[in-house]
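Worked example 2:
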Amino acid sequence: MGVKQLKKKFLRMKNTIDKFQKIVKELLDDEGAKPMAQFIASENLYSEVDLALTKNGLSEEKFEAALKDLVFKTPRTATNAFFNQLFGGRNETAVLGDLLAVILNNSMYTYKAAGPQVGVEKVILREVCNILGWDKSSDGTFAPGGSLTNFMSMVMARDAADKSTPHSGVTQKMTVYTSMESHYSIPKNAAFSGVGRDQVRYVPSDVVGRMDLNALEAMIEEDIENGYKPIMVNLTAGTTVLGAFDPVGEVRAIGDKYGLWLHLDGAYCGSVIFSQKYKHLVDGISHVDSFSFNAHKMIGTPLSCSIIVVKDKRNLNSSFSNDASYLYQTDHDEFNLGKTSLQCGRRNDALKFWALWKSVGTDGLEKIVDHQFDLADVAREYIRSNDSYELYSYDESISICFNYKGIPARDICTLLYEHSELLVGYGSYENDEFIRLVTINAQNSKQDILDFFKTMESFVASNTHLFAPALTEKS
C-alpha cells in the first residue's frame, strides 16, 4: 500500500473516530439532563426510528443524523435511572479496554492471532483461580454470556460422568439438579447437551430463596432408584429475583456421596469472591468443580464479560478440545485458547476487565462490590422506615424487593417505563409479586438510591388517576 493510500486510510479512520467522539459527547451531555431515553412502543418502532436498509447508501450528513437518532432513542443503561437488569453503569477504564479491543480486533483462539492478549486472558483466569484457592491444575476460559458458561459446566459434568459421551453420545438417562430460583438457561442447556429438559430436577427453595438440601438428596435417591444417573448439581450465587446464595459447602458432601459435579453459577453475584466482607456468602467455593461469574454485572465492565473456571483443567480439554491443523500451527496448546473454549472465532472480552483490574487493583474491585451492598442497605433502610412500603427480600442481597402502597408492581414498573421516568423491573417469589430494585451500578451514590424512591413516589402522587383502583382499595 502506497503512502497516499495509507494517508487516506488514516484520515478515514480519524474521521470515523471524530464522529464517534462527537456523538458520545452529545449523548453524555443529554444523559446528564435526561437519564431516560424517549419511550417508543414496540408497535411504533419502525415508524419512529429510521431503520430501513436501502439499495443506495446515505450521504455522510444523513447517515450521521440517522445514527445519532438511533443512539439517542436507545434505552440508557448507564444512568442513575436504570435499575432494570442485572447490569448497569459505565466504568470509563473498562470502556477504554473494550474500545481498544474493537480497534485491535484480535481473535482469541490462537497465540498467533492474539499475541499478548492471550496473556491478558490467562492472567485473569489464573488470578481468579488463586482467589478460589485452586492450584495450577485449574484453568478457565471466557464465553459470550452466563448462559453459555452454564452450558459448558453441564457439558463437562456430562462427560465426567461418562467419558465415552463426547464420542458415542448420551447413552443413559442422566439427571441434573438446580434450584427452582435458578437461571432460565438450565433447561435450555439440558436440551443442548443431550441430557434433556425433562431430566432437570427443580429443587424447592427455603423462605429466602436458597436450595433445600433435604429435598435435593431425596430427589437424587428417588432418581437412582428409578434407574437414572444423577450427574450434576447447579448452585446459584445470587438468584435472579431475591439475590439468594445457595449453601455451597453443605452441598459438597452430597456431591461426594453420589459422585456429582458441582457448578456454582455466580453470573449475578459471584463477584463477592473479591470482597473480604461478603465472600462468606460463597463459603465452600474452593470445593466446587466449576464456577462462573459475569464481570459485566457486579464488576461493571461492558457487556459481555463472562468467565468460567474449573478445578481440573483436564475437563476443559476433554470436553472442548478439537484439533485443526489450519488453525493451531505454532506455539504450545497452553497459549492456543481455542483448545479449551466453546467457540473458534472469539472477540477479546478479557481486555476490558484487565484494564479495570490493572488500574484499580484487587482492592479496587473489592470496593466496587462492597459499595453495591452499601447501596442495597440504603434502600432497605428507606423501605423499613416508611409505612407505605412492604419489604420482601432480606439483608446481604443486592436485590431489594418491595411494594409501594399496595399498587401492583407491574403497574408501577410499566408506567414508569412508558412515561420515561425510571427503568425498574418486577419479580415474584412464591405467591408474592413485587418491584425488584437492583443496586448493581457501583457508580450510583446513596443520593441516587434515595432519588429513585422520590421519583417513584412523586410519579404516583402526580398520576393518581392511573393507580386509582389500587389506591382506593388500599385506603
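The mean pLDDT is 94. Residues 341 and 347 are 12 Å apart (CA to CA).
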